[in-house]
Amino acid sequence: MANFIIGLTGGIGSGKTTVANIFAELGITLVDADIVAREVVQQGSIGLNNIVQHFGEQVLLADGSLNRARLREIIFQDASQRLWLNSLLHPMIRETMLAQCKEAQSDYVIMVVPLLFENGLDSLVDRTLLVDISPELQQQRTVARDAVTAEQVKNIIGSQASRAEKLSKADDVIDNQGEISALKCKVQALHNLYLSLANNS
C-alpha cells in the first residue's frame, strides 16, 4: 500500500503528463486530479446531482451528462458561482484522490495536480515535483498542441502561480526543455530517490 505521496505539478504545456507516464512505465500508480474531477461529476454522481439542483437543467446535455461548456460560461461570468462550485467539488476531489492513493499498490504514488500549489493540495503530499519550462516554450507547445491562440495561453499562464513561486515551493524540479531521452534519465534518478524515501518513511 502506497503511503508515500509525490505531488507532481507544472504549468500548461510543461509536459506533466509525459513525466507522469514515464513514472507509470516504471510501475508507479498515478492518481490524476483531472480524471478524478471528471469522475465526481459523472452521471448518477452526488456531485452532478448537486450541480443540477443548484444551476438547473441548463447545465445538462441531452444525454443527461454535464454540459461543461455551459457550466464554464456561467462560472466565468460570476465569481460567486465559481466559488460555490469549487467549495462543492474540491473536497470531493480531495477525498477521492486520497482514497485512490491509499488503494495504490506501488511503493509510492504520484498525485498529478495541475494547480497543486494554487489549491493548497501540496499539504496532502510528502514531497513535490515541478516540471519546469520557460513561459515562451510553454506558449509554443500549448499553441501547437491545443490549437489555441497565444493570447489564450498567456491568460491561462497568468491565472496560475508564477514560475518563481512554483520553483521556490517545489522539493524537486525537472527541467523539461530538452529531449525525451534526457527526461527519462531524470525521471529514473528521481524514481530511485523516491523508492528509498518511501522505504524509509
UniProtKB/TrEMBL annotation:
Q: Which domain of life is it from?
A: Bacteria
The pathway to which it is assigned is: Cofactor biosynthesis; coenzyme A biosynthesis; CoA from (R)-pantothenate: step 5/5
The record's keywords, sorted A to Z, are: ATP-binding, Coenzyme A biosynthesis, Cytoplasm, Kinase, Nucleotide-binding, Transferase
Tell where it localizes. Answer: Cytoplasm
Binding residues for ATP: G13, S14, G15, K16, T17, T18
Q: Which family does it belong to?
A: Belongs to the CoaE family.
Tell me, what does this protein do in biology? Catalyzes the phosphorylation of the 3'-hydroxyl group of dephosphocoenzyme A to form coenzyme A.
Q: What is this protein called?
A: Dephospho-CoA kinase
The organism of origin for this protein: Shewanella fidelis
